[in-house]
Design a protein that fits this description.
Number of helices: 12
Number of strands: 14
Helix content: 25-40%
Low-confidence stretches: 230-241, 342-365
Number of domains: 3
Mean pLDDT: 84
CATH architecture of the largest domain: 2-Layer Sandwich
Radius of gyration: 25 Å
Shape: globular
CATH topology of the largest domain: Alpha-Beta Plaits
Distance between the termini: 33 Å
CATH superfamily of the largest domain: NusG, N-terminal domain
Order of helices and strands: EEHEEEEHEEHEEEEEHHEHHHHHHH
Largest sheet: 6 strands, antiparallel
CATH class of the largest domain: Alpha Beta
């Protein structure tokens, strides 16, 4: 794990310092506190930290160096201030003297060998993950939950986490997953852990029946929630995230492999007509969502060199060219304007929000 703050290009070939941690039993909370403290400690100085993680799992966070991590910065005095973070002893010194003048350094050439070894182990961990793999989420709001991989593409995966009352589709980097394919199918519940395995061993006859009902969605529940990793901040208004245009388009592009924009728009318009999803302020927003998600979730994964949607049209044909007016033509009776008038925008206080929306999509087109 490499943690960087600001531009670290000027740290290349610079020697590292060994940072002692207080206890291996509190590694993870210590690193979380360290990550939050870095901006306040270093401010305008760049810093690079190397955390040699060898194993991650449920309540497991192991380092190859036991109680040490490594760091380097343009400001040596700021490195000394790391000992103010709870769980960090400080920089390692000669004979534990604690003197700044006797801080030990570690040659960058040796550090790069350890980093290369850690990165290779990191890549090897994700090599066997494919569609159908049973995995655990390591970080994020869905942390420690288990699910089945639906899609693997472009270094990311879509994982279906089946709870009792809803099914969650989580898009996350493959490196954020732990492969649990060794787990028998009858134990693949969203809460799988060593206790489940022990339950099966202690109760070989009753155990499978206790777990079986948690392997499937309840018949009365058909809710599918689409989430990204990292997830955005929670909304102030409580509303189900699956009732949005974005969730429908993601499902169509990522799971159903629909890539024709007007075919996607037709499904969205039908959902808007039936009230299945919440109506946006105008159809220009629908147009932007479809275009942005097609670019991000399909075309850039097929060809990472594509910079904007104009290149998609130029390379793959005019069938991918569409507009908000064409979406409106799919259902002339749909009571949603193509674009919100300037008067209505000012009245609702949404002019700034619309400008922000347009700017965000202009950056990708």
């Amino acid at each position: 794990m490499i943690i960087t703050y600001l531009d670290c290009s000027n740290l290349r070939n610079k020697d590292w310092h060994v940072i002692e941690l207080r206890s291996r039993r509190t590694l993870e909370p210590t690193l979380l506190r360290l990550g939050k403290a870095i901006p306040n400690i270093f401010r305008y100085d760049s810093v690079e930290l190397f955390v040699p993680v060898t194993r991650r799992d449920l309540d497991v966070f192991e380092l190859s160096t036991q109680d040490c991590i490594f760091g380097r910065s343009t400001n040596f005095q700021s490195l000394l201030r790391l000992k103010s973070v709870t769980g960090i002893v400080g920089l390692m010194t000669v004979a534990d003297s604690g003197r700044a003048s006797e801080v030990l350094t570690w040659p960058d050439a040796d550090a790069q060998k350890l980093i290369a070894t850690a990165e290779e182990g990191f890549r090897q961990r994700a090599l066997d993950i494919e569609a159908g793999s049973f995995v655990r989420i390591l970080n994020g709001q869905m942390r420690d939950l288990c699910g089945i991989v639906e899609i693997v593409a472009g270094g990311k995966a879509v994982v279906r986490i089946t709870l009792r009352t809803k099914s969650i589709l989580l898009e996350t980097p493959i490196c954020n997953l732990l492969n649990l394919d060794h787990v028998p199918k009858e134990q693949r519940a969203y809460y799988y852990c060593p206790l489940v395995d022990q339950l099966m061993k202690d109760n070989p006859e009753e155990g499978p029946n206790l777990i079986e009902e948690d392997l499937h969605l309840d018949d009365a529940a058909n809710s599918v929630e689409v989430a990204d990793e990292p997830l955005p901040e929670p909304e102030t208004k409580k509303r189900s995230r699956q009732r949005t245009v974005t969730a429908v388009v993601k499902r169509l592009v990522m799971l159903e492999n629909k890539h024709n924009p007007m075919d996607i728009a037709q499904v969205v318009v039908a959902a808007l007509r039936s009230g299945e999803i919440k109506a946006p302020k105008n159809l220009f927003i629908v147009y932007c969502i479809i275009k942005n998600l097609l670019l991000k979730e399909h075309f850039r994964k097929v060809d990472p060199s594509i910079r904007n949607y104009r290149e998609v049209i130029r390379r793959y044909g005019k069938q991918y060219k569409f507009s908000a007016q064409q979406i409106a033509g799919l259902d002339p009776d749909l009571d949603i304007p193509v674009q919100t008038s300037e008067r209505d925008i000012n009245r609702s206080g949404g002019k700034h929000r619309l400008a922000t929306l347009r700017h965000s999509f202009d950056q990708s087109v």
